[in-house]
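I have been asked to look over a protein record a colleague put together. Alongside the sequence sits a line of tokens, each denoting a local backbone shape. I have pasted the whole thing underneath without changing anything:
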Amino acid sequence: METNQKNMNLNETNKETKHKKQKKKCFQCKKKLGLMKYECQCKHVFCIDCLQPEEHKCQFDYIQKNKTKLEHNLVKVIKPKISVI
């Protein structure tokens, strides 16, 4: 019984190390990535050639992200009402 569990544990650790040893590849051109990995806002990893959003047809909405960022950072200015004398 114990040897069965040990064998299963060894098999699980072997599977995990195999997954860790797999090289990362560019999402678009499937080139192997060495030290330079770039992650886009769409959560995919690319090489330097495919990193530009236009190059890999990125579905992330950069315009909406920047609009919400500006709304939070900018101070809203409201003119005071003029009281009639």
Remarks:
- The mean pLDDT is 77.
- The longest strand covers residues 38-39.
- The first helix runs from residue 2 to 21.
- The beta strands are 38-39, 45-46.
